[in-house]
Specification:
alpha/beta, 11 helices, 18% strand, globular
Length: 236
């Protein structure tokens, strides 16, 4: 089954071949650390602006309690753009994976810090059967070993600790430590705590194929212009 916008990994590699920074723009309504992020802005219009500014893909946080997300926002964003959309949430059930496909997501996030191995394996297998890609998220070397057991196509390296709901300071050094350990052929995304072009450049030079940036873009006075400058300022 062809997903909305095609595979996430393909969009990343396509941008990389064109020597354009593969940036996944994260639409996160709120966060425990930074409060309201989207505010009164229309998520669908925001998504269109970020794609026009150069984002090769989008992600949408749907977790409601701590991050203010919803499935409705996911569907509106998926309907508004033609690039792949990653659904970010704490996945624990088959129903969540199935509803992601119904809302036209191209990929789902599987956070190993919060998911036992048997559940992770079952959800990964189901997602692939439904035509969804899976970003397997890690934060430690131990989680990397667990991730590799799934034979993933994409690994996300979270520079912050999701177990603290990303309220820790975080640092791109996590990507610098872990990205070189990921085998070739697996797409690597550096996530979280990327505030500046310098942070992103460090992640790319460490071996990340793409970056996922949300808070810094959403807090900018002009998110589209800020995103465009990030992309043009980083050597790929």
């Amino acid at each position: 089954m062809t997903t909305q916008g095609g595979p996430l990994s393909a969009a990343i590699l396509r941008a990389k071949r064109r020597r354009i920074l593969p940036l996944v723009a994260d639409i996160k309504p709120a966060s425990p650390r930074d409060g309201e992020l989207v505010g009164l802005r229309d998520a669908a219009e925001l998504a269109q602006m970020l794609v026009e500014a150069g984002a090769c893909a989008l992600s949408v946080v749907t977790e409601p309690r701590s991050f203010g997300g919803s499935l409705r926002t996911l569907r509106r964003v998926c309907d508004a753009v033609k690039v792949p959309v990653l659904r970010k949430d704490f996945f624990s059930s088959a129903e969540q994976v199935e509803e992601s496909q119904k809302q036209k997501a191209a990929a789902v996030l599987l956070i190993l810090a919060t998911t036992p191995d048997p559940v992770a394996a079952a959800l990964y297998r189901l997602a692939r059967e439904l035509g969804l890609e899976v970003v397997v998220e890690i934060h430690t070397r131990q989680e990397l070993e667990r991730a590799l057991a799934l034979s993933p196509t994409i690994i996300g390296i979270n520079n912050r600790d999701i177990l603290s709901l990303e309220t820790d300071s975080g640092d791109v050094r996590v990507t610098e430590e872990l990205a070189p350990l990921v085998p070739g052929g697996i797409v690597k995304i550096s996530e979280s705590s990327l505030q500046t072009g310098e942070d992103i450049q460090r992640a790319i030079e460490a071996g990340a194929d793409a970056v996922l940036v949300g808070t810094a873009i959403l807090k900018a006075e002009d998110p589209a212009t800020f995103l465009s400058r990030l992309i043009s300022g980083v050597r790929v």
